[in-house]
Specification:
Elements lengths: L5 E7 L3 E5 L2 E5 L4 E3 L30 E3 L3 H8 L12 E4 L11 E4 L2 E4 L8 H7 L4 H5 L1
Parallel strand pairs: 5-6
Antiparallel strand pairs: 1-4, 1-6, 2-3, 7-8
InterPro entries: Benzoxazolinone_Detox_Enz, MoCF_Sase_C, Pyrv_Knase-like_insert_dom_sf
Pfam families: MOSC (PF03473)
GO molecular function, one term: catalytic activity
Length: about 140
């Protein structure tokens, strides 16, 4: 097991049609925080889903994790208050950032053991949600 961290938030949501900038998009980026334990299968949390299964989800992308340490920065950049899960992540943590994690590292989250398989590649839906075309590039 790798570094010490604290679970700040568990976030799930099913894909739905939303309108960003006058355009209707099918997306699973809108997650809501849950307080109760949620079952994690090999491909997703119960009650969660991805709209684009070519680029998101599956055994190598079942869970998206993001560091809560970045939220203050993004609140300033976006000029708005943000709640955990605002970037479509399933798990928001503290005590660990990208430079602390390597592909292959494993972590225990409740009863589940998860393994890092790849860095996040944000899609255009993040840009649409915040109306910032280059946001996925800044976010990487």
């Amino acid at each position: 097991m790798a570094n010490e961290y604290q679970l700040l938030s568990l976030n799930i949501g099913l894909p739905k049609e939303v309108t960003y900038g006058g355009k209707v998009i099918h997306t699973g980026i809108n997650k809501k925080q849950v307080k109760e334990p949620v079952f994690l299968s090999f491909v997703k949390f119960s009650g969660d889903g991805q709209a684009d299964l070519v680029h998101h989800g599956g055994v190598d992308k079942a869970v998206c994790v993001y560091s809560g340490e970045h939220y203050r920065y993004w609140e300033k950049e976006l000029n708005q208050a943000l709640v955990y899960g605002a970037f479509g992540e399933n798990i928001t943590i503290s005590g660990m950032c990208e430079e602390d994690v390597c592909i292959g590292d494993t972590f225990q989250i409740g009863e589940a053991i998860v393994q890092v398989t790849q860095p996040r590649q944000p899609c255009f839906k993040l840009a649409k949600k915040y109306n910032i075309p280059k946001l996925p590039l800044y976010f990487q």
